[in-house]
Amino acid sequence: MATTIKDIAKRVGVNPSTVSRVINGTATISEETKKKITAAMKEMDYHPNIQARSLVNGNTFTIGLVMDAGNSDAYANTFFIKSVTAIETVTQQMGYNLLITNYTERERSNAVKNLVLEHKIDGIILPVSGISEDLVNLLTTSNFPFVIMGEPDKSYTKLNWVDMDNAEGGRLAVRHLMQCGYQHPILFVENKGTIFEQKRTQGFISELQNNGLSPSRSDIIECGSNGEEIATRTKQLLRKHPEIDSIICANNIVAYHVLQGLKQNKVSVPEQIGMITFDNYPLAEYLDPPLTAVDIDTYLLGERAASTLFDMIKNQKGREEAILIGTQIIARKSTERG
Fold this sequence. Notes:
This protein is α/β, with parallel strands linked by helices. It has helices at 5-12, 16-24, 31-43, 50-57, 78-93, 108-117, 133-141, 166-179, 195-210, 227-240, 252-264, 298-314; strands spanning 62-68, 97-103, 123-127, 146-149, 161-164, 185-189, 220-222, 246-249, 274-278, 292-296, 322-325, 327-330. The termini are far apart.
């Protein structure tokens, strides 16, 4: 016979209503009592009836996570995997389920609208690439809880979003190179149009200026994502600007192709050129030489996005919050000059 709330209450020595409030999170219960009830639920293999809870509370006990179906690399991306793992962990701790849905550019708004208007979820986490003016208007006018992963552009105001502190990452990269004796760094970005690349560029420029240097347009290279093109741009850069002594790369893949271009020109790293890559995973420590990295905590990014969303679900009035996750340098051989 299945375990009931009354069985849990009897084991712990509390009223069934107390067990119900712990399960539903509808009232303040002491941490000690919560732990006892949670432990008893685990020992007695109790599983709340989600449908019954939904009927009582009007909640689905499910949150949504939207992914870009047009990004074929998303599910193999370490950034995605670690962030989603964190979101799933927080969701389970809150007694909720996680529903992952895809969107295409054409169906971006509809993918979310269906979930919201059909009351299939209680809140949603969106990638910054997945938002639009119409969608944001729908969510805000409906007072529907949502959090954006990634910093929106300035046209979107009073939204809840979580992102890495990319400007700080740009500053730290330049600062580390200067401390290692390099004097003329270059920044390789894939796409100057993205907010996170713009923030990294701002940090890069500000730290150069703090060191008495005057950055120019040629110090920021838009390299795209094509490997052969990146290697070619690296070779061209070496010919046109022999004074360059260090390169900061947008990610591990860009760094790999830059490194190939340097090797083809018989340029040694770190003796002649120092190298730093954004993101520690998946390749940085395995390349030759191992690359110094601007590390970003993508697990914490997902964790903060989920916890912010649940705060909004509990407090329907919500709050406007912009959260930046700090970065740090992981130093390796690629910047060990001399």
